[in-house]
Design goal:
By secondary structure, the chain is of the alpha/beta class. About 50% of the residues lie in helices and about 15% in strands. The chain has one domain: NAD(P)-binding Rossmann-like Domain (Rossmann fold). It is globular, with a radius of gyration of 18 Å. Belongs to the short-chain dehydrogenases/reductases (SDR) family.
Amino acid sequence: MQADTADDDSVRAMASTVVAELGGVDVLVNSAARPASLIPQRGLDELTDDDVRIELETKLLGYLRCARALAPSMVANGWGRIVNVSGLNARQSVSIPGSVRNIAVAAMSAALADELGPKGVNVSVVHPGMTVTRGTEELIASRAEAQGIDEATMRARAESGTRIGRLATAAEVADVIVFLCSPRSVAIAGDAIAAGGGARGVTHY
């Protein structure tokens, strides 16, 4: 479902159709957002309400609408998993829109976990860092150009920022999500799991 561009009624209608066709839903993985590279990088004097509103509408409210529409089916079955894909910008002051949208998702997830956990539905958050996808090379190229360095240097900087010495792949992030969607993840509820290859810097606990 593309809840990032749909209103609440549309999401509920789509969810109803899915539940009817499948007989219920066990797992919801929310993953919708503009790439961080496309978020306007503006100073406070140029930052607009829409710069922030668009990110919250897409990510926070999109995720909330899907959870609200599908959680009742999970509660009725007494089991479910909701995994919200956020991002490591929740732990960095890169930009107001980029950081706020991810922090908001983490806070919402914890609140949902409080409510749904006792009913058998665990909610968790995954914070990927820069990840190897089809758009990674384009992102590295744009950042290199913006900083006036070559792409090899930009790539090396990105890789040196991880404890594993390289960027995690989309498949490796997906492995973390698959575990969180499984019955074996019952001990994780409302928590945020970083999946960025071990971002260097501040220790989070």
